[in-house]
Protein: Tellurium resistance
Organism: Streptomyces broussonetiae
Amino acid sequence: MSKGSNAPVPITALRVELGWRSGPGVPDADASALLLTAGKVRSAGDFVFYNQPAHSSGAVRHEGKRTAGGQVTDVLGVDLTRVEGAIERIVLAASADGGTFGQVPGLYVEVTDAASGAVVVRFDSPGATSETAFVLGEFYRRQGGWKFRAVAQGYSSGLEGLATDFGITVDEPQHAAPPATAAPHPVVTPPAPVAPPPPPSPASPPVAAQPPAARPVRLSKVTLTKAAPSVSLAKQGGTSGVMRVNLNWQVRKQLSGWGGRWGGGGRGDLDLDLDLCALYELADGRKGVVQALGNAFGSLHRPPYIHLDGDDRTGAVAAGENLTINLDHRQDFRRILVFVTIYEGASSFADLHATVTLQPQHGAAIDFSLDECTVPSTVCALALITNTGGDLLVQREARYLVPERAVSPQRTVDRAYGWGMNWTPGRK
């Protein structure tokens, strides 16, 4: 497609892929979507991006990023059958992190049918230069159907400027006021007399109640890498509330030991069942595991203050697997190791492309991708969270482990990190 052109799209579940070539000096980029009514969002909930990965209607979902063969893709799932009637347009945007889009080679957006994989539309090379955010295209209603338009509208003000333009209130960092200087000798003075309030004036008209302020959106995030593998939750503002740990995956090739083929947003002939788990050690010395195996789902409001939300067998439904950690009890944690095992459907993590996201309720999102697996591994240590002086330090592990013969994945990760637990066979 060329800039400004449009084409009809089927009313079905679609996969929107933002892609570019990686390389030295190439900045990262992030896909996002805005669901609009009369040109604006109705609320912050109509903005889908890395810190807010799913729309409440289920119509739009941020599926995550992967790197393979020198190509980077960031994917959105858009199900046009689930778009609310009030939504007129879905804007597909991108923001550059650490540079401009003029430094991003081979930029494109491609829309495919999620079920069949057939390409519906594709828009290449929008002609970017110094822009740090871009509206690449949009879905819009037309005569009872939907169409896609190639837009290529750039912003030099980044994701913040783009979001603000569509009605989003952005949460800016708050700077604490300097502490007041204490007087050397406190002086006590009697309180001033308080005058009684004046009687209400019968002629004064009632004052209309002000609508509540729009909920602000936080755009900041942290990406952990081999070069910068750890981050303090306190420094990111994640000191209270809950933190969701999400594992989202895509399978792009045939897995060893698995006969199906599946990728991003659908299911294969057989289920690939990955289990997100967590070993924990509390401050009082108690140890345990949170996992679907043995129905050890944990608890959010009593020890271990960690809860496994469910058991997703696709990596796409319900946005992958999720653990929730209660940060209001961070003083009760000594360490938490988040890991993933293959329960069934494959003999290793080969050709699995996974993204891990830790989303504190009151802090910046923390994410990282798993490296390519080149060993016959069925268990991968994802992140180690340790209590350091009351602060929780998140360490990227991304470590594939190979169990010895007749040794379970859980026992393997226990031995690697010195947890020292006794294990017995379990079933779902």
Residues 6-165 form a domain with the Lipoxygenase-1 fold (CATH 2.60.60.30). The two ends are 49 Å apart (CA to CA). The chain has two domains: 6-165, 221-417.
